[in-house]
Write a structure and sequence with these properties.
Layout lengths: L9 H11 L3 H8 L7 E2 L3 E3 L8 H17 L2 E5 L5 H15 L3 H6 L2 H4 L1 E3 L14 E6 L14 H27 L17 E7 L9 E6 L5 E6 L6 E5 L2 E5 L6 E5 L1 H6 L9 E4 L6 E8 L22 H15 L13
Parallel strand pairs: 1-10, 2-3
Antiparallel strand pairs: 3-11, 4-5, 5-6, 6-13, 7-12, 8-11, 8-13, 9-10, 9-12
Helix pairs in contact: 3-7, 4-7
Length: 341
Amino acid sequence: MTESNQNPPLLHDYTQLLQQSRDSAEVKKHANFDQEMQECDLPLVDLGGLWSVNKEERVSCASEICKASSEWGFFQIVNHGISLELLRRMRKLQVELFKAPFEQKVASGLLDNSYRWGNRTATCPKQLSWCEAFHVPLSKISDETCYGEFSSLREVMQEYAGAMQELARSIARVLVVNMGIERSMWEDNCNESTCFMRLNRYPSCPISPEVFGLVPHTDSDFLTILHQDEHVGGLQLMKDSKWVAVKPNPDALVVNIGDLFQAWSNDVYKSVEHKVTVNQETERHSIAYFLCPSYESFVGCCEEESSIYRRFTFGEYRRQIQQDVKDYGHKVGLPRFLISA
C-alpha cells in the first residue's frame, strides 16, 4: 500500500516498527481504544457574558470559566467574538496548504521551516503520532517570505492570530484576577512575539487503531484555544482517571489549561492529559493557538510562600521536556519541578 504524494511517508517508515514491536497490547491498553468509550460534552461557556454591561452576568461567566478550569481543565466557548467566516477562511486555506506535495512542504521553507510530521525518534507505537503540522511562531506570520506560493494565507493568518491572541488574553485575565492578582502583573509576559499557532492534519490511517493521531500529553503553555474539526471526532481527555471522547460542537472553540497555568496557580487550574485518535476513513484538521511567555520569563507561583513548585523559566521548562523526550521517549513535565521532588 502506498500513500498519496501529499502525505508524509508515515506508513512506509513505521510499518516495520508496528509489525515488530512487542508492546502492541500495551499500546492498546494505554490508549484505551474502545468502541464504547464514553462521549462527553465539555462544560460550555457563553463568553457573551464576559463583555456584558450587566455585572452579575460578567461575574457568572468568569465563575464558569474558573470552575471548568479547576474541575475539567477543558471547556468549550461560544459567542467568543471570532467570526465564523474567518474560521471558515482559515480552515479552507489550511486544507489547501496540506494538499501541497510532501516534498514541497518539507523543503520549501514554508512558514519559517515549521513543518513537522510523525515522530522520527519513535521506538514503539505508543510514541508515534500519525499527523503532520506547521508549528508557527507568531513573530513570523507577517513575514512575506514565509509563504511562497501560498501568499493568500498571510493576511488570513494575521487576522486569525490577532483574534485568537485577544481572545486568549481575555480568558487568561479572568483566571489571573480569580487568583487575586492584578492582571497587569502577568499579561505583559505573553504577546504576539512569544506565542504560537499549530496547523494540524491527521491523515486517514489504514492501520488504525494501533497508533495515535497525537500521543497523550499535556500542553506546555498557559492555555490553548483549539478550532477542531466540526464533524470528525478524535479529541480525548483524561477525566476521573478514564479516557473520555469529546463530542464535536460545530459552534464552539475548545479551551484547555496548560502546564504553566497549573504551576502558576499552584494546582488550582488543571493541565489535563489529552490525545488525538485517528480515523481509518477520514482525515481530520485542527488549529491550535498557544498562549506562551518568552523563554526568559519566570513561571513562579502566584502564592510563592506556599508553592509546591520551584521557580523556573519557560525556556528551562522546554529544554527539560526536550531532554526527557530524548532520554525516555516521553514528556515528564511538571513533576520535574516539584519542590519535594
